[in-house]
Structure formats: C-alpha cells, structure tokens
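Need a sequence for this fold. Nothing fancy.
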C-alpha cells in the first residue's frame, strides 16, 4: 500500500491530508516511502515523557505538554499563560458623600446607577455542525452522513480531537469525520465557577474563535453564541442557558 510523508514525519495512507495528525501534505512530498526512520525527537515507544510532570506526550500533538505547558522545543517550563478576567472594583459610597437609597441591588443617586455584575450562564451546551463557508477548495467535501448534534456540558475538561485506538486517544468531543482535526486538538474546560474556557493545545491546523486564530496553550474565555471553527469544515457553537 502506498504511503506518503507527512511534514511532521508520519506515514500517511492519504495523499492530501495526513491520516495520523491531519496536517496538509504538499504535492512535492507525495512520494512513496519505505523504511523511513521516525523523527529524532520521537522516543522508541512513540511517546515522549514530560521532564517536568512525567505526563506522556504524543510528538504529533504539538510542542507543549498538555498538562503543565513544558515546551519540548525550547525546554522552557510552564508556558501556560492563562487569560484571567477581573471584575471591576466598585468604590464604597458613604453617607458623607451623598444620601442614597439602595433598592434591588442598585444605588440610586439622582441619575447615577451602579449596575450589578453579570453572572455566567447556569448551564452550557455545544452544537456541532458543518460550516460550508469555512470549506477550503482544497479540502475534501464533508460526508453526506454527517448529522448536527448537541452536547450538554458538566464541570470538567473535554478533549476535542479524533479517536486513535492504537494510541489510546479517546476525545470527549470526538470529530472523527474531519481528518484535518488533530487527535489532540483543543481542550475545553467548564470551571467550578461556571465559566467556560478554550485552549488550543498545539494542533496541526489551528483553531479559530469567531474567525480569529487562537494562540496555542492560552486559555480563552468563551461566552454565549461564540463560534469555534477547526479542521476542514467543523463548527462548534457555544450556547449558554
């Protein structure tokens, strides 16, 4: 059977996109291979062990450890910048400033009103569909059998990617029908305080949030009606209740 060299060193059975990691294979690399050695960064067992937290790491899943953020290329530790949003600090209003009357969570003083801070939705769910606009002309057409589906979320982390029985990768959000999605593509976290965050974990083809490319290994807060696009044509819409 013919195999093709992926830019990341895999033996792909597909000539256009790597059957292992989903990265696009350029025309000049589409040559038949035989007995090609694995990249020098790959260990004998096909996995790397993070020197900081000892977690197993697939070489084709990016340059960063998904657990602690260790950079396997530079050796830097803890490269997990997390976007944290802080609520505004409201200065207390005393009677010495001006008499006020408090009603239903607002402070009334003439026309001045201090609004209450918005709370995160009580529950979240995802709707997974095909985005025909995001379909690249060089990409294969989406399968006719794909049916949109919804996924309710509970407080935990969800791996977004494709299933690999050989590597024991079983994503909670499985997008097996889109082979441009990496096996370990992104991490979605529903936190205990009800906030929802998304992190691209070094995917081969990247992740877009509302048409903006995400930086890898950075937690980005999500809000109602946000749209995540990845792979050839997969769209994930965020819905809060």
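Here you go.
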């Amino acid at each position: 059977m013919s195999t093709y060299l992926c830019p990341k060193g895999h033996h792909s059975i597909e000539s256009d996109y790597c059957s292992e990691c989903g990265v696009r294979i350029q025309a000049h690399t589409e040559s038949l291979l035989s007995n090609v050695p694995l990249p020098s960064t790959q260990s004998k067992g096909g996995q790397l062990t993070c020197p900081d937290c000892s977690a197993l790491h697939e070489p084709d899943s990016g340059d960063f450890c998904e657990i602690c953020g260790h950079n396997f290329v530079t050796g830097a530790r803890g490269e997990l910048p997390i976007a944290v949003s802080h609520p505004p600090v409201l200065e207390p209003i005393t009677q010495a400033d001006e008499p006020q009357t408090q009603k239903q969570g607002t402070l009334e003083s003439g026309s001045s009103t201090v609004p209450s801070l918005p709370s995160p939705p009580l529950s979240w769910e995802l709707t997974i569909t095909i985005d025909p606009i995001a379909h690249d002309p060089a990409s294969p057409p989406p399968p006719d059998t794909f049916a949109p589906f919804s996924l309710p979320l509970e407080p935990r982390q969800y791996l977004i990617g494709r299933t690999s029985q050989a590597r024991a990768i079983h994503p909670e959000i499985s997008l097996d029908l889109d082979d441009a999605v990496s096996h370990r593509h992104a991490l979605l976290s529903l936190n205990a305080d009800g906030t929802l965050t998304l992190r691209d974990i070094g995917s081969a083809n990247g992740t877009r949030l509302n048409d903006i490319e995400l930086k890898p290994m950075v937690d980005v807060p999500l809000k109602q009606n946000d749209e995540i696009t990845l792979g050839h044509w997969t769209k994930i819409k965020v819905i809060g209740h």
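For context: Confidence is low (pLDDT under 50) at residues 27-42, 80-90, 96-111.
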